[in-house]
Structure formats: C-alpha cells, structure tokens
Amino acid sequence: MSKLKNYFSMSEMILWCSSVMMIIISFCAFDRENYLTLFASLIGVTSLIFNAKGNPVGQFLMIIFSLMYGIISFNFSYYGEMITYLGMTMPMAIFALISWLKNPYNGNRAEVKVNTISKKESVFMWIGTIVITVLFYFILKHFNTANIVPSTLSVTTSFIAVYLTFRRSPYFALAYAGNDIVLIILWILASAKDFRYISVVVCFVAFLANDIYGYINWKKMKIWQERNC
User: Fold this and answer.
1) What share of the chain is helix, strand, coil (3-state, %, to 5)?
2) Cα angle: 190, vertex 196, 197; to 5 degrees
3) Using CA atoms, how far apart are residues 59 and 64, in angstroms rounded to an integer?
4) Buried b (16+ CB within 10 A) or exposed e, 119-140
5) pLDDT value of position 190
6) Residue 11 CB coordination number (10 Å)
7) What's the whole-model pTM score?
8) Are 146 and 77 a contacting pair, CB within 8 Å?
9) Lowest-confidence range among 9-23, 33-47, 70-84, 148-162?
C-alpha cells in the first residue's frame, strides 16, 4: 500500500478515492443487487488511473472490465455496447497491453513511451472509423439494438479510442472522454426504464473525470519524455 501511495500523487489518490466513493454510494442508493455492475465499475475506474500514468496494468484491468461490461450491456439489450466491448475494445486492449509492454520509457515498464501519429496515419484512422461506423450501424439495426443512434456513436468513439490507445497517443484519453459522454446519455435513457442503471451513469461520470485527467497527464508525460530523451 505504501508503494502505491508513493507511486500515485495526492491528487491522483483523491481522484481515485472520490471516484470509488461515487460508484459505491450510487450502487447502494439505486441498485443494491447487480454486484457485477459494481465490480465492473470499480475495476474500470481503477484501470483508468493506471492508464493515466501510462502503466500497462491499466490495460490488463481494461480487458477484465470489457468482459464484465459486455455482459451488463447484453442484459439491457445494448447489443452495440456488447459487440463493441467484447469484439473490439477487449481484443484491442490485449494488443495495447502487448504494445505498452514492448515500448517502455527508458526501460521503465511502469511507464509507456508516448507516441505521436503522423497526419497520414490519422487519415487512415478516420477512414477506418467511417467504415466501422457504417458497418456496425447495419449490424446493430439487424439486432434491433435499443437507442441505435447513441449506440452507433459509441462504436465510433470507442474505435478511435482503442486505436489511439494501441498507438500510445495522448489523444486516446480524450477519445475515451468523448465515449464517456455518449455512454452517459445512453445509460440515462436506460435509467428512464430501470432506475437501477443510474449507478452505471454515475460510473461513466467518474470515468469522464478520470479520462480528462488522463489526457492532461499524458500531455505532461509527452513533454517530460521529449525533454529527457
């Protein structure tokens, strides 16, 4: 525990503790039954604080979260979320874990080397995003996915986020923040039918705060690494 206190800054510990408390309080207030949702939320928010540090442990935890979240999404017929996380986010988290482990900063496996993608690669990413979005729209429509528009937007933002994560770009956290906003809307719609899902909304609000911090910290990491090359 003392090693973790030394590893994380005071602000990071406050952010993580606040996020955990938000998730637990919302679960006790609105759910009290779906412990899978609680455990998934706690694992997810913990993965984000490690991701913010560029630590591969975050990607390992994201693999576990993706599996749990896929099950939760299936239970509410959010097939887009299920397919996205089980068929895209989880596999890409595995590739990202391998990529982060292979690219440590100065041999420090607790911090990945920050990368910059070229304009040519950015064009390739956006073309891939358009193709994936159109493809998934028709797949989701075929399965009569609930709230298809935000579900499709979730696929779009998720693809950008996982690609940038794999490529070790600071903008991956910003893409995930965009995805968090879409998911907040998606689960608010679900909460209108079943108030227990308010706890999932709170979970993604916590995720949003952590992803914004992650982007800020990765920009700092990038500057630090470039100065100390």
Assistant:
1) 80, 5, 15
2) 40
3) 9
4) eeeeeebeeebeebbeebbebb
5) 84
6) 10
7) 0.91
8) yes
9) 70-84
